[in-house]
Amino acid sequence: AQSVTQLGSHVSVSEGALVLLRCNYSSSVPPYLFWYVQYPNQGLQLLLKYTSAATLVKGINGFEAEFKKSETSFHLTKPSAHMSDAAEYFCAVGSGTYKYIFGTGTRLKVLA
Amino acid sequence: NAGVTQTPKFQVLKTGQSMTLQCAQDMNHEYMSWYRQDPGMGLRLIHYSVGAGITDQGEVPNGYNVSRSTTEDFPLRLLSAAPSQTSVYFCASMGQGNTGELFFGEGSRLTVL
Question: For an interface test with A, which of B43, B89, B99 has the most A Cβ atoms less than 10 Å from its Cβ?
Fold first, then answer.
């Protein structure tokens, strides 16, 4: 069985500060891992994905994530937060079975 | 560029009523799915389909029915609504190759009184 744990349901950072959103996964097979972003009153859109190629994955809007098998982690980072980054972020895991499991989400607040 | 279209965007039902949430995509995607989003619980998979005539259950299928008669449409039916089904529902599709890139609709907010 697969599962995803996102640590911290709410994260606040100052504009220009580092963004770090944590995601740990559990999977009995090599996982596919994803980060999605949801802006208010919208559906989710893909930020980036890991599918067993490079362990450091770059996504849209300056975000990146590093797959660490030893830590079963896939944390999302951005060097400098922008006000427009305020949104809810979801980590998800898949294994090729078409069942994508999402975490509970982390709401990012960016302070001016 | 329509993408994934969900209707209605908002709906209020009384307990025991039935309704259908509509989902249509114009990207010729084989895979379609329904999720529900509840505070503190993230998104949970209800049902999914990998092609016309093929459906399967997700994590929380009870109380919901689906069918897939065409590639474009994937309606979600609530036969007898319950307050526990108050939620925001998202339809998502994915192209060939099981890439994991889901394309989401804008959601349907359902309240069951």
Answer: B43
* Structural tokens at position A76: 């999302």
Across the interface, whether the CB atoms of A44 and B90 are under 8 A apart is answered yes
Omega cis (within 30) before A79:
no
Q: In terms of Cα–Cα distance, which of B90, B98, B96 is closest to B74?
A: B90
Q: What span, in angstroms and rounded, lies between the C-alpha atoms of A84 and A89?
A: 13
A69 touches B: beta carbon within 8 Å: no
CA distance A58 to A77: 10
Query: Which pLDDT tens digits describe chain A residue by residue (112 residues)?
Result: 788 999 999 999 999 999 999 999 988 777 889 999 999 888 899 999 998 778 899 999 999 999 998 999 999 999 999 999 999 999 999 876 778 889 999 999 999 9
> Which of A31, A69, A38 is closest to B102 using CA atoms?
A38
CB environment A101-110: b (16+ within 10 A), e (fewer): bbbbbbebeb
Q: What is the pLDDT of residue B2?
A: 76
Q: Are A83 and A15 in contact (CB under 8 A)?
A: yes
> Quick one: DSSP state of residue B73?
B
d(CA A69, CA A73): 7
